[in-house]
Amino acid sequence: MPRELMLDEKTAARNMAEIEPKYSSQEAVVEANRCLYCFDAPCIMACPTGIDIPGFIKKISSGNLAGSARTILKSNILGASCARVCPTSVLCEGACVMLDRDELPIKIGRLQRYATDYVFENDVKIFDPPKKKSGKRVALIGGGPASLGCAAELAQLGHDTVIFEKKEHAGGLNTYGIAYYKLTTETSLKEVELVKSLGIEIRTGVEVGKDIQAKELEQEFDAIFIGVGLGHTYKLDIPGEDLPEVVEALEFIEELHVNPLHEVPVGRRVAVIGCGNTAIDAVTQAKRLGAEHAVIIYRRGEKDMPAYAYEYDIAKKDGAEFVFHAVPVEVLGKDGHVVGLKLARTEMGEDGRLNVIPGSEFELPFDMVIKALGQEKMTDMLKGMFPDLELARNGVIQREPATGQTNIPHIFAGGDGANGGSEVVNAVGEGKKAARAIHRMFTGETVEGPVQWTRIGVVNAKPVGSGLDNPIRVPELETTYSAGGK
Ligand SMILES: Cc1cc2nc3c(=O)[nH]c(=O)nc-3n(C[C@H](O)[C@H](O)[C@H](O)COP(=O)(O)OP(=O)(O)OC[C@H]3O[C@@H](n4cnc5c(N)ncnc54)[C@H](O)[C@@H]3O)c2cc1C
Ligand code: SF4
User: Fold this and answer.
1) Strands 269-273, 368-371: pairing kind
2) Would the CB of 47 count as within 6 Å of ligand 2?
3) Which residue's CA is the closest to the ligand 2 atom numbered 4?
4) In a 3-state reduction of DSSP, which class is residue 363?
5) Residue 296 has pLDDT above 50, yes or no
6) Which ligand is closest to the CA of 251, given by its number?
7) How far apart are CA 409 and CA 162, in angstroms?
8) Is the CB of residue 472 below 6 angstroms from any atom belonging to ligand 2?
9) Is residue 429 within 8 Å of 149, Cβ to Cβ?
10) Strand order in the sheet with 269-273
11) β-strands 362-365, 337-348: how paired?
12) Phi, psi of 119, deg, nearest 5
């Protein structure tokens, strides 16, 4: 059975509405006033872009919303999308000292959204053009969060930048890949406009390696930043995979960003293969588009799922179903359409390896299968562009993490293509670090980030810098802290 349109326009819009609505001004001020404005704020260290969080919250409580947004956007040009998509419970909010007092953490993400929305809604000008231009030019390959973060920092430091993006719009996965109910296409494109307002040129519809060669960029520009992200979803490599209702999770999510929501067809019984955050996004969106059953198929058990706990909760609340300890062995078809999956049970062997149990096959009826098995690395494309570029064994770009510099001194990299796949805020932070390293290469000057003593700094009796210089995720923070700063 082909995929069907299930919802009218109004229902589709309601189902896909943002899950975290905007604070009213009263709610924002009340929440901001809960903040203790810690001097040694651990939240700053847990933000990979090093935003001065107590600083921007204080400005909300005193009614200075433009100043608050400026504090955020100077550190993180994509502060509006990060406010919506950051996994705050393992980043800034998870590090909030309120948790030590058994109180709810300050809702940093929602306050950040409140301040940045003010700027977009009121057309407030945040940035002035740089005082002097360096005359240096940087090309950025890919127009996702990593390149946008890098270009914004370079532009503020006085360098000219040109972003080359193969798609119709810049923004990368922010524009095309993140669950619609977290981040709308409109918000992402407004952020792209903010980046452009810094004087950054974005050439969309230009694929480097096809429409323009990397060699030409090397001749024309003084440095290059590679922010190409990752590639297609890994294949299942099972019979029936080429049936029309077998789609990649990213293609499915992209359909929601480029078409009217009610015009995106879905199956009545949808199987999603995989159990990471992308699988959760796919299963919840299938349900919200009207699928009667949307089922995650995962080869391991519930406690092994790579998805964040809060994402798992969203899926359960949306009525998603789960089949654990099973792998697909065949996509079943009839008359050229998907009618089900043949699955086999798995178990953990004594050697710690996952085995398929012989003779355990069973069938379940489905009319759509979404693959969410992780994204391939862009190895061939990168080698085609820069034959001498060193790649790590897992296919990501080998680079110095603190600077993004690759083995080719004028080429830098960051974001998913270099870190293997992380969050938007990591991509922005890596782009920003690379920009500062490029600036040092051009001018010999070092740009310092916001440096604060942190709780870890206090334990170690020395300042350890902000999350941009020394990012730490909350599980690491807890380990370091309880181990006495060692
Ligand atoms: C389904 C899904 C859901 C996610 N949800 C979240 C979330 O809720 N929260 C969160 O923080 N993170 C989330 N992420 C992760 C986040 O989207 C990425 O970490 C982030 O987008 C990485 O940014 P990037 O710039 O490295 O790559 P991308 O965003 O992938 O951007 C790379 C860009 O480069 C372009 N490009 C590639 N090759 C070329 C070329 N040869 N020439 C020109 N342009 C090129 C691409 O078209 C693309 O626009 C999610 C990821 C996925 C897949
Ligand atoms: S960018 Fe993300 S991690 Fe940083 S303060 Fe904002 S919500 Fe928290």
Assistant:
1) parallel
2) yes
3) 47
4) strand
5) yes
6) 1
7) 19
8) no
9) yes
10) 246-248, 368-371, 269-273, 293-297, 321-323
11) antiparallel
12) -65, -45
Q: Check whether residue 359 and residue 395 sit in a common domain.
A: no
Q: What is the rounded distance in angstroms from the CA atom of residue 370 to the CA atom of residue 295?
A: 10
- C-beta 166 within 6 A of ligand 1: yes
Identify the band that residue 334 occupies on the pLDDT scale cut at 50, 70 and 90: very high
Same domain, residue pair 222 and 144: yes
Q: Which ligand 2 atom is at minimum distance from the Cα of 467? A: 4
Domain boundary among the residues 371, 389, 417 is at 371
193 CA distance to ligand 2 centroid (A)? Answer: 21
The number of helix segments (H) and strand segments (E) in the chain equals 19, 14
Beta strands 411-413 and 223-226 are: parallel
175 lies in some domain:
yes
Residue 90 counted as domain residue = no
Tokens of residue 66, six digits: 């433009």
Last residue of a domain, one of 371, 392, 417: 371
Coil/strand/helix, residue 301: coil
CB of 427 within 6 A of ligand 1: the answer is: yes
pLDDT higher than threshold 80 for residue 215: yes
* pLDDT value of position 481: 55
How far apart are alpha carbons 423 and 355 in whole angstroms?
Answer: 31
- The closest residue, in CA terms, to atom 34 on ligand 1 is 142
Statement: the pTM of the whole predicted model exceeds 0.70: yes
Residue 280: domain span: 246-371
- How many domains are contained in the chain? 2
User: 410 and 389 share a domain?
Assistant: yes
Nearest CA to ligand 2 atom 1: 82
Q: What is the CATH number of the domain that holds 367?
A: 3.50.50.60
Judge if 284 and 216 occupy the same domain. Answer: no
SS3 readout for 62-131:
CCCHHHHHHHHHHHCCCHHHHHHHCCHHHCCHHHCHHHHHCCCCCCHHHHHHHHHHHHHHCCCCCCCCCC
